[in-house]
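User: For my dataset I need records formatted as: sequence, then structure tokens, nothing else. Please produce one.
Assistant:
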Amino acid sequence: MLKLGVYNTLEVVREREQGVYLCDDDGDEVLLPNKYVPDEFKIRDLIKVFVYLDSSERIVATTLEPYAVVNSFAYLKCTSVSGIGAFLDWGLEKDLFVPFKEQASKMRVGSWYLVYVYLDKETNRLLASSKTNSFLDNSLVLLSSYDEVDLIASHPSPQGWNMIVNQKHLGLVYADEIFQKINPGDQLKGFIKKIRPDGKIDLTLQRHGFRGIEPNADQVLKELVSSGGFINLNDKSDPEDIKEVFQLSKKSFKKAIGALYKARKISIESDGIRLLD
């Protein structure tokens, strides 16, 4: 059975004037229009294609790569708005439709939105929704403290930034642990800080404890090299100055330079830190 909204690897079964027909293991066929047909191919070749519905609601294949597949999140630009909803550019000829009922706020042309792509079971159409929390579930979180996770920045709150965790859960990075500029749709690496009894997830963008010393130390070394071997910051410096240069908290910075000092990579002087030969 052809699968909408994802990549399918299909067999070339015949060539026609409008393109080539591809077939899956169940005998279901789909057209790959001429504009996407490889320059060289032969019958029985396997081709990886994305399958979706064209503007006439017919199943069609393409070798274009969309910005998202079904059951995933993406940050997309609104290209038009009609009387029934909005349309987003997702890298294909036919834009992705967002019904009004699936818009967390009224979409406007030219603006960008974090959305979830899904297959509507009633209409068998690929749709998007900006009501992203509806597609996240924290009832069963099979993660543990210190686990590295993939994050997508969702939206800010008074406490910090809400993050989509591994395309499944909702988590939070607290404001006092953010040392970089974050925008909606940013894809980041993070770490589990705590899983609360109610399933809420506390996140951090820095490794915990001793696990974080080595990567932070490497970051300090890179800054030292790019600055000519000396930076006028040390363990007595103002936290905001440290944050501006290294994107680290003062606590993490002190741990990093302590590790580098013990390893005889740097000297800690009264007016800064210096790279040793």
